[in-house]
Design brief:
Elements (H helix, E strand, L loop, with lengths): L3 H4 L3 E5 L3 H11 L5 E5 L2 H11 L3 E5 L7 H11 L5 E5 L4 H9 L2 E6 L4 H19 E3 L4 E4 L4 E4 L2 E3 L3 H12 L4 E3 H9 L6 H14 L5 E4 L3 E4 L8
Parallel strand pairs: 1-2, 1-3, 3-4, 4-5
Antiparallel strand pairs: 6-7, 7-8, 8-9, 10-12, 11-12
Helix pairs in contact: 3-4
C-alpha cells in the first residue's frame, strides 16, 4: 500500500451495529492504522470519539439508540473538522441529502469492497496531512498529526514530553502557558521544581530557538505562531 506510512499515523473510529461487518472491516483494513476502534451504536460511538479523538469517523446510518446522522450532528459540534464517511444499505436520495447536510465527505453503499474504502482513506490522508501542518514563527512548522517539529522542513528530534509541550502551547489561549500550568500538564501528579522546569525549557529552546518559545519573565512561556501574537 503506497500510502501506508500516512495511514499508520491515523486514528479511526468505526461505528457499525452489525458485529460481523465491523469485524470484517477491522480485520481487512484495521492494521493499517495507528488505532482502529469499533463502536456498535451511536451513543457508544460518541463516547469512543471523545476518547480517541480520531482523524476519521466511519459510521453506518441505521443503528440503535442513536443513528449515524444524529451522532454525526453531536460530534461535529465538538469536532467540526472531523471527516465523516457513511456506510449504508440505503441509496435513496433523502438519506444521501441528509448525509450531505451533516457534513459527510463520502458515502459508500453496502455491500462494498474494503479495498475501495482503504483507497479513499489514502486520498483523505493526503488532505489531512496538509491540514495538520501549522506554520509557526519562520522557519518552524509543527505537524499536529505526527506531533513533530520541523525547521526548514527538517525534523527536529524532540522527546515525547518536549513535543507535547509544543502541542500544549499551540492549543492554549494566545499560545501561552504559565509555569504552573506547564508543570501540571507535562508532569501531572509529579512534584516538579522551578529549576527542573527551567532546565527542561532550556533544552527545548536549544533544540529549536529562543525566538520560537519566549519567556514571559517569572510567569510562563509563549509560542510564536505565524500571524499570531508578537508577529
Amino acid at each position: 500500500m503506497p500510502c501506508s506510512g500516512r495511514l499508520a499515523r491515523m486514528k479511526v473510529v468505526l461505528v457499525e451495529d452489525e458485529p460481523r461487518l465491523a469485524g470484517l472491516l477491522k480485520e481487512a483494513i484495521g492494521d493499517y492504522f495507528e488505532r482502529f476502534v469499533v463502536a456498535y451504536d451511536g451513543i457508544e460511538g460518541v463516547a469512543k470519539i471523545r476518547d480517541v479523538k480520531p482523524d476519521v469517523l466511519i459510521t453506518d446510518i441505521t443503528m440503535p439508540k442513536m443513528n449515524g446522522l444524529e451522532m454525526t450532528g453531536v460530534v461535529k459540534k465538538e469536532f467540526p473538522d472531523l471527516p465523516v464517511v457513511i456506510l449504508s444499505a440505503y441509496s435513496d436520495k433523502e438519506k444521501l441529502l441528509g448525509a450531505i447536510d451533516a457534513g459527510v465527505v463520502k458515502y459508500f453503499i453496502k455491500p462494498f469492497d474494503p479495498e475501495e474504502l482503504l483507497t479513499y482513506l489514502c486520498s483523505l490522508a493526503k488532505t489531512l496531512k496538509k491540514r495538520s501542518l501549522i506554520a509557526l514563527k519562520e522557519p518552524f512548522a509543527y505537524d499536529l498529526q505526527s506531533e513533530q517539529l520541523f525547521k526548514n522542513g527538517i525534523l527536529i528530534h524532540l522527546s515525547q514530553r518536549e513535543s507535547r509541550f509544543i502541542a500544549q502551547l499551540l492549543h492554549s489561549p494566545n499560545n501561552y502557558l504559565s509555569n504552573e500550568a506547564i508543570k501540571e500538564r507535562l508532569w501531572e501528579d509529579e512534584n516538579v521544581s522551578d529549576e527542573r522546569l527551567r532546565t527542561f525549557i532550556r533544552r527545548v529552546r536549544k533544540k529549536s530557538d529562543k525566538s520560537l518559545i519566549e519567556n514571559i519573565s517569572g510567569q510562563g512561556y509563549v509560542l510564536r505562531v505565524k500571524n499570531g501574537i508578537g508577529d
